[in-house]
Amino acid sequence: MDNIVKSTIEKIKNEHIAPESKWKYIAKKYFTWVIFGAIILLGSASFSAAYYLVSGLDWDLYRFAHQSFLGFAIPLIPYFWIFIIGAFLLAAFIDMRKTENGYRYGVGKIALVTIGSLIIFGIIFSLIGFGGRFNSVVAKSFPYYGNHMMMTKESQWMQPDKGFLAGTIDSVSSGNAALTDLNGKNWDVTIDENTLVRPAADVSKGEMIKVIGKKQGAGSFHANEIRPWSGMGMMNGQGGGNGYGGGMMNGQGMMRGGK
Amino acid sequence: MNEKEPQKDAELVELSKKNPESFGFLMERYEAQLFNYIRRIGQLSKEDTEDILQEVFIKIYKNLNGYDESLKFSSWVYRIAHNHVIDHFRRANARPKTNSLEDEEWERLISSSVRMDKAIMDKDCIERIKTCIQELPMKYREVLILRFIEEKDYEEIMDILRKPKGSVATLVSRGKEMLVRNMKEKNINCF
């Protein structure tokens, strides 16, 4: 057995074998963490893109579409981004396990770190408005996603046959408004005393609005409710967000149009 | 420093990086343990085991800068030895089908795995249980050897195999369960 020690030392000396550079190990160690960071950042960007899409939608429209909330919500879920986020989480999990001491961390700990950091950075990206830009870039780069898989606020409100219309007001006169929709088509929108105009909705030339009502002809639409483009228009001067706020409950602060 | 006090592994690692002679002390410290471990997990001749041991030592020497001091040095060298043996069999396109354990080691493995008193084991019984152990998949055999022959704790086995502690505990317990099941199927009842 002593021969092994002696012969190994001789071999090391004769063949000039030397320990490999410590930088190689440092680089390898940090490379895995850099990959982990990149995966988390991409996952966070995907999270913020999903949040951008979900937060832009009006989730109360199921009442006007005569649908159950579940039946209305299922097609609106951003499945593409959920799949992408899931893939990034899986990649982050595997990468973390491949770090030097990754095998020591339990599943719960790794899940907490990966999901937690993805959500934190996702919120930061959303706050700086990165989600919308990232979604646009992906929609342009993958036209199939942009054309067939993405449910946006625009697509939600460009369904005149279902009673949802959005566009920019060209002119307003007594009892109606001329509107150019998001596809550039002109509409004559009738507004009467039963039309509910949300407090934050500004029905004047150049303003973007959303209209709930009924298509009456090729270019004619009757408005039951008018909302500002941003939010639900619950509160004056504010978007009102996407919640089901109490302002709607008793009609306080609402205005009736067409008088 | 007191010359009689043995140097710690980490100190010898630092010295070995500068001088291969110092690496000799580390090799002397681990050669018997690693030789036996390589013999136990593979089924190799003495000469082949010695050749692999030398390759393992060279690998350890080359990777000295990659040693993470948060690990036990013994766990780290066992990991290198384990991976090298697996690579050896992979290159040879074969897997160690059996383990070269000595009689006393078989007795220890059997008594620990199936909680059987060594005193009541007869030769025939040991032979039949050995067959059951050899039929276990490699992943179970290697953890049972590390746990009951090498007498490593779960923490060390985790560092050697780079598997989470929970997975190691599961492998040990499933290996034991599988062994007991195999014994029942073969009507082996030495208790």
Explain the layout of strands and helices.
The complex is a heterodimer of chains A (259) and B (191).
Chain A: H1 2-14, H2 22-56, H3 69-73, H4 79-97, H5 107-127, H6 130-141, H7 143-149, H8 153-157, E1 164-173, E2 176-181, E3 186-190, E4 196-197, E5 208-215, E6 220-228, H9 247-250, E7 255-256
Parallel strand pairs in A: 3-6, 4-6
Antiparallel strand pairs in A: 1-2, 1-5, 2-3, 4-7, 5-6
Helix pairs in contact in A: 2-4, 2-5, 2-6, 4-5, 6-7
Chain B: H1 9-18, H2 20-41, H3 46-62, H4 73-91, H5 103-113, H6 123-134, H7 138-149, H8 154-161, H9 165-185
Helix pairs in contact in B: 1-2, 2-3, 2-4, 3-4, 4-8, 5-7, 7-9, 8-9
- What structural class do helix, strand and pairing data of chain B support? mainly alpha
How many domains in all of chain B? 2
**Overall geometric form of chain B:** elongated
The average pLDDT score of chain B comes to: 84
Oligomer: heterodimer
The arrangement of helices and strands of chain B along the chain is HHHHHHHHH
Query: Roughly how many Å is the radius of gyration of chain B?
Result: 18 Å
Tell me the strand percentage band of chain A. 15-25%
Order of helices and strands of chain A: HHHHHHHHEEEEEEHE
| Domains of chain A (count) | 2
The shape of chain A, in one word, is rod-shaped
Most extensive interface between two protein chains, with residue counts: A-B, 25 and 30 residues
Q: What's the β-strand tally of chain B?
A: 0
If helices are DSSP runs of H or I spanning 4 or more residues, what is the number of helices of chain B? Answer: 9
